[in-house]
Design brief:
The complex is a heterodimer of chains A (about 350) and B (about 350). Chain A contains 9 helices and 17 strands. Chain A is of the alpha+beta class and about 350 residues long. In chain A, the strands form 3 sheets. In chain A, strands 1-2-12-3-13-16-14-15 form an 8-stranded mixed sheet, with helices on both faces. In chain A, helix 1 runs antiparallel to helix 4, helix 4 crosses helix 8 and helix 6 packs across helix 8. Chain A is globular and about 65 Å long. In chain B, helix 5 packs across helix 9 and helix 7 packs across helix 9.
């Protein structure tokens, strides 16, 4: 089993620098399929586009576990080609328009094309525009190309993503775009790599879901398709930053976050916490008072109800192009899941219905 | 053509050394006499063929770019900053930056949209609420990598799209690059070229440089904001990229010398070189400092139009820039021959 093609950093570099806006995840799916191949037994893509891997358990009769992380990222879609070739756009998922002026983008035209997100300069703001945050309608993409070329290469409906190189900062921190939730995909990959040397009864379905950012749609159908006994979503949560309320964020570098609340089966959260403690893995706790904004929301109510867990990587500046995570948190999360899976027996899963 | 290479160098006002060293290396390589002053201005003395007579002409372009400066380090290890020059604040968020001479990487983050209240989203992000994140654990950890006073520049890569270039700091590395083209040509007369410092914080280098050189005639090479973009009213148009170099009529710092302006226009007309007038009359350039030094100089400003100046990524036309080099070349030949 060779894994020398990727290491965690290299995988994340490829995964974050390439584009895969919600609904347009194919090129990311290719990289993921390539990276997971050495560690899995089966692979399929469902009708909607979810990428589903199976790593079979040792022996038969083990529980069926779904682990998922979404592979889509927030993106932009061209809505109008203006005079002189300037492009108007809308967003796929939740961008803060104030983070967009001065960004470079890659447009998925017939060939990839680069552009700049422009806005008029501040000295031309009218009085009522001063102090106002930029809105999507104030912004446009400038490719610098003549209108005829733009019209030939780009159509209404063409998708664009922010252009951003993954950078390494101090203390194992990395920053780039789409770490929400390619960091989660990397956790799944790291877990699969750990499992290569471990025994487990469970049949493990590792799923890279699509369209999370537009409403956890991939998770909805993949949970149905896999019909697991347990589902665990791996996503990102808000990391600490200056001015944040302590209750709304989790510090970076202190391990993955185990969520509790109505969306989460308490015994699963308990088991994940115990596993972390037994293996001396750093971990944090977060509570969410309703359906979480993750794939866990869809999984829990799929079929006749699926016991669901959520493991998150703390991430700063979510939905900007400088999302920032700590690599160590990703590794710990991968290990935690691997240990959880190796210890998983059928009786634990049966017990989850006796609540 | 050194636009791309020059633009990639960090060179915020007061910290121009990397740009200066790059240019100096070229001057030495080409055997051009040069010197620096205490502020950091770089003077190149272009000698004419057979030690041709000094024409009294000075050409200048500023080396510095707008940027940031680290003002303090939070307990958490995040960096607060001052703006250096007229940076466009609304383009700061969600960008990578380079800090100090070791090029420590950082990013300017923003509160996630999920955590903002509705009315918060409608307001512009205030620059004094922003900070740089270098991944430090705390203040002590950050102090190992950076120090208060470190200069911060944008971190964007230069690239070419057909006949356009895209990147940071074209204001005014495009001007510096044009002067490097001129310095490689052969002239029958001598003149002085100055690469100035601190233009973006008030044309401070040019003041000292003009005093030293004391020119009769000066041409200031600049890069000016193109307004040929959506949302700008026709009457605020200023200049467009692809329309040729722009001649300044006046700005907040000076009035173009009428005979210099006439000569630029007539050269462009004769040679069928496209040109435009900079229709926006605000803002300042080194021209103000140069025109009012000593007993005064006849000064003109010629600019490459550039979209999105003072932001992380700007866009200019290489055709405009080539025309600019061409006009400057013809202008100094004409003035040295016929005067103004």
């Amino acid at each position: 089993m060779s894994d020398n093609k990727y290491d965690l950093h290299k995988l994340l570099k490829e995964l974050t620098e390439k584009g895969g806006a919600s609904g347009y995840e194919e090129s990311i799916a290719k990289i993921i399929a390539d990276a997971f191949a050495p560690y899995i037994d089966e692979q399929r893509t469902d009708n909607l586009g979810n990428l589903i891997f199976l790593k079979k358990g040792n022996g038969t009769g083990g529980p069926k576990v779904l682990l998922c992380a979404h592979m889509d990222e927030i993106g932009l879609m061209i809505t109008k080609i203006e005079e002189n070739g300037f492009l108007r756009f809308t967003s796929l998922g939740g961008f803060d328009p104030r983070t967009l002026p001065g960004q470079e983008v890659v447009i998925r035209g017939r060939e990839p094309l680069e552009g700049i997100i422009g806005i008029k300069p501040p000295h031309l703001f009218e009085n009522d525009e001063k102090g106002k945050g930029a809105e999507m309608e104030d912004l446009f993409i400038d490719t610098g190309l003549p209108e005829t070329t733009v019209r030939r290469e780009i159509k209404v409906g063409t998708v664009a993503i922010i252009k951003r190189t993954l950078l390494t900062l101090l203390n194992d921190c990395i920053t780039g775009k789409a770490l929400d939730d390619r960091a989660g995909v990397a956790v799944l990959w790291f877990c699969a790599r750990e499992l290569a040397n471990l025994k487990h009864q469970a049949d493990i379905y590792l799923v890279a879901t699509i369209q999370e950012e537009v409403g956890t749609r991939g998770a909805l159908v993949s949970a149905f398709g896999v019909s697991p006994d347990i589902g665990i979503a791996v996503d990102v949560c808000h990391g600490d930053f200056p001015g944040a309320q302590e209750y709304e964020v989790s510090p970076l570098g202190k391990g993955p976050v185990i969520t509790w609340g109505p969306n989460i089966h308490p015994q699963l959260a308990e088991r994940l916490t115990e596993t972390a403690k037994e293996n001396h893995l750093p971990h944090q706790k977060d509570v969410s008072p309703g359906p979480t904004g993750t794939d866990a929301r869809a999984i829990q109510v799929s079929l006749g109800g699926i016991p669901t867990g959520l493991l998150s990587i703390p991430l700063r500046y979510m939905h900007t192009s400088v999302e920032l995570v700590n690599l160590e948190d990703i590794k710990v999360a991968g290990k935690l899941l691997a240990f959880f899976l190796t210890g998983l027996r059928g009786d634990f899963v049966e017990g989850l219905s006796c609540i | 053509m050194y636009i791309k290479e020059l633009s990639q160098l960090p060179g915020v006002s007061g910290d121009e050394s990397r740009v200066r060293n790059f240019i100096k290396e070229k001057l030495v390589q080409w055997g051009i006499k040069n010197q620096t002053d205490s502020m950091g201005n770089l003077y190149a003395f272009k000698e004419g063929r057979g030690k041709g007579e000094d024409s009294g002409i000075m050409l200048t372009a500023h080396m510095d770019e707008v940027g940031l400066m680290v003002s303090s380090i939070e307990k958490s290890g995040h960096l607060r900053f001052y703006k250096v020059g007229g940076i466009y604040e609304h383009t700061l968020v969600s960008k990578p930056v380079k800090i100090g001479h070791r090029d420590v990487r950082g990013v300017i983050g923003a509160k996630a949209i999920h955590l903002q209240k509705k009315d918060e989203r409608k307001k512009a992000l205030e620059v004094d609420k922003l900070y740089i994140d270098i991944g430090a654990k705390n203040r002590e950890d950050a102090e190992k990598a950076i120090k208060i006073g470190d200069y911060v520049s944008f971190d964007s890569e230069a690239s070419t799209i057909e006949n356009l270039v895209k990147g940071k700091a074209f204001d005014n590395r495009a001007g510096c690059a044009a002067l490097l083209e001129i310095l490689q040509k052969d002239y029958p007369f001598s003149f002085t070229v100055v690469f100035t410092v601190q233009e973006e914080v008030g044309s401070r280098g040019a003041r000292a440089a003009a005093h030293r050189v004391n020119p009769r005639i000066a041409l200031v090479l600049e890069t000016t904001g193109a307004m040929d973009i959506p949302g700008v009213k026709e009457q605020n148009g200023s200049v467009a990229i692809g329309g040729g170099p722009a001649f300044t009529l006046m700005d907040d710092s000076f009035m173009a010398h009428p005979q210099i302006l006439d000569r630029l226009v007539s050269i462009a007309g004769q040679e069928k070189i496209p040109y435009q007038f900079r229709r926006y009359t605000g803002s300042f350039t080194d021209a103000g400092a140069v025109a009012l030094a000593h007993s005064g100089a006849a000064v003109g400003v010629i600019s490459t139009p550039c979209r999105y100046i003072h932001t992380p990524v700007s866009l200019l036309s290489l055709e405009d820039w080539n025309h600019l080099v061409n006009i400057i070349d013809l202008f100094i030949r004409s003035v040295s021959e016929k005067g103004i």
